[in-house]
Amino acid sequence: MAGPNSFLSSAPSGAVIDAGIAASPHPPLHLRADHRAAIEQLARAGYPHEACGLLLGRHERDATRLARITHARNLATDRLADRYLLDPRDYLAADEEARRDGLEIVGIWHSHPDHPARPSSTDLANAWPDYTYLIVAVHQGEVVDLTAWRLDASNFVQQTIEEDS
Ligand SMILES: [Zn+2]
């Protein structure tokens, strides 16, 4: 089981995980337009480095709903182009903020500079069972794709994104 010290992740190097297209057992992620815009803006601003942050909200029976998103420092200074190591201080601050407001950390977003929006083997190795993993593909500085993933047993399955206005 991964712990708070293992936020290391990476973009695909070589083989892309076959995540499959089976129906997700998880309810959809409801993504508001302003949250999406904020994540995309941070992903573009971070390019060509990986940007990352936390998703605060609630896993409800019928949907994962976000209340806000945060931006976290990427501490993977030796591999900024294809790794993220979410600063534990930013994680703890977000966790405190979530508890204070009756929310929980429901996931992590991060960008894949010049790589597809699919989880890498490092993403899989470091994934937590109850988190939504939102991945933003940034190609040449522009956002080209955004996907969500949940861990099901030992593999990622894509989580449907429903756009909320
Ligand atoms: Zn990744």
Overall form: globular
Total number of beta strands: 10
Looking at CATH, the homologous superfamily is Cytidine Deaminase, domain 2
Largest sheet: 8 strands, mixed
> Structural class, from helix and strand content?
alpha/beta
Overall mean confidence score, pLDDT: 88
CATH classification, class level:
Alpha Beta
Strand line-up in the sheet with most strands: 9-8-7-6-3-4-2-10
Percent helix, as a range, is 10-25%
What molecules are bound to this protein? Answer: zinc ion
The arrangement of helices and strands along the chain is EEHEEEHEHEEEE
Number of domains: 1
Second rung of CATH, namely the architecture: 3-Layer(aba) Sandwich
CATH topology: Cytidine Deaminase, domain 2
How much of the sequence lies in strands comes to: 35-45%
Please work out how many helical segments DSSP would assign: 3
Oligomer: single chain
| Radius of gyration based on Cα positions | 14 Å
End-to-end CA span: 36 Å
Give an overview of the whole structure.
- The chain is of the alpha/beta class.
- The protein has a single domain, classed as Cytidine Deaminase, domain 2 (3-Layer(aba) Sandwich).
- Strands 9-8-7-6-3-4-2-10 form an 8-stranded mixed beta sheet. Strands 1-5 form a two-stranded antiparallel sheet.
- Bound molecules: zinc ion.
- Zinc ion binds next to β1 and β6.
- The site of zinc ion has 8 residues, from β1 and β6.
